[in-house]
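Lab meeting, action items carried over

1. Structure of the two-component assembly. Owner: GW. Status: complete.
Input record:
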Amino acid sequence: MAGESAAHMILFIAAILIASSVSAVMIVTIEKMSIEIKNQGDYISNVLSTNFEIVNDPELIPNTTLGTSKVYTFYIKNIGTTSFPFTNDSLTVLIDGVIIPEQNITTNVPILNPGDVGELNVVTTLNPGNHRITVILYNGVSDTFEFST
Amino acid sequence: MGFSTTAAFVLLFITGLIAFGVLATVTIGELKEINKIMKIKNKKTIELQTTNFEIINVTAINVTTTEYNLTVVIKNTGSTTLDCVKFTLLVDGKVINATSNVSVLYPLECAEFNASYLSGTVGSVHRLKVVSDDGIGKYANFIVR
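Predicted assembly:
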């Protein structure tokens, strides 16, 4: 009788231990899933609320000479509902499909708030004619603008 | 054996319920947030479709031999109220500082934007671009008088 009770006790403890282990694994997995869902949701919300436009006059891009290159100024207007970082390391700029190095880009403000216009200065050499600039933000939202020099 | 199995299942069931609760709370919270932003985005899209304005008049009067004062009159021809503070004016491709006589521009109303001491001599031709708060741009040429 005592032996049977001990066997039941051992089985009970074993069952509880296995169930607890499975529960612990489940809770850890669910926690990771929750964090990932939250991150993805925040990312989607951020992308949906971010929008901007290059508002330059396509025929008159302000520029100044810097050595053999020129500094072209592009005006970026935040037409979204959220602020976004506006620094050379948070932006990707392509002119005619070629990436402009980070050190050749400067901005006048670190953060662009909704409704504000920021200056994006790009040091490059462009031949006279039609060109295309694409600006990509840190979250992948982009705008393309065609202009002539 | 019977009690052990029941106890284990009860434990797993409770854990499952807690896990489902946590997942459901997070997912519903995020979906609500996305839904809220989608509503704002849809509202902005509708606003964009109903936004329109016209440059009614541009006056450039010289104040010194090389400078002039600019007055731009804009009429809201759409059905959305526009925020004048968020308008952007570009003259010859460069953003200028301009002040408006009203902060909001209601449909069919006019707003006057003024900018002082811009570079240009009498008779010089300049190009103006006006950009609204949602990115709509309108162009006009003017001569300094």
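2. GW to write a short summary for the group page. Key points so far: Helices of chain B lie at 2-49. Chain B has two domains: 1-49, 53-143.
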